Amino acid sequence: MLLCRILSIPVASISIIALFIALTTDYWLVAYGPAGIAHSGLWQECMDGNCWTPTKANEYILATRAFLILGSLAALASVISLTASFMPCDCGFLGGVFVTSIVAFTGALFTLVGVVVFTTESWGKNRDPQIQLTYEWSFYLAWVAFPMLFLTGIFSLVAHLCPSRPGYENV
Questions:
Q1: Rounded to an integer, what distance in angstroms lies between the CA atom of residue 18 and that of residue 145?
Q2: Rounded to the nearest 5°, which phi and psi values hold at 128?
Q3: Where is the chain membrane-spanning (predicted)?
Q4: In the chain, N or C: fewer CB atoms in 10 Å?
Q5: How is residue 85 annotated by DSSP?
Q6: Model confidence, pTM
């Protein structure tokens, strides 16, 4: 089904962009307190405009980084596989669209594991009642990438299971 293959490309591309922005920005957690505002991401922490890279990152941060990087690479592979699926090639059962669905589902799983690890480890982190700790837009971008990669996998699987009907191109 050509429509599903075509829809998969922008959805997968947007998920790559969302994952890249989530990985590189430092607005995963924001703390509002009497001393000011602080925000942190996967690579650095900032307070009052001064940013620094922690000398030793927590294990859950390292796990989140690793899984989101793997999810990004899988999303990139799905876009490449989808683009290659438009090239004429007789690859049999493991054609480009089937491979794309597997890779997209794998990327969605990596992304889900990464953000779940971050969420569960940072949920009860705040012990001070004067500080309000909230998740911010970088965190939510990572969560948005998960259903988008899952949709890419679904669209690709539908495209694989419902091949196009013969038409004028076969005449």
A1: 6
A2: -95, 120
A3: 6-30, 66-87, 93-118, 139-161
A4: C
A5: T
A6: 0.87
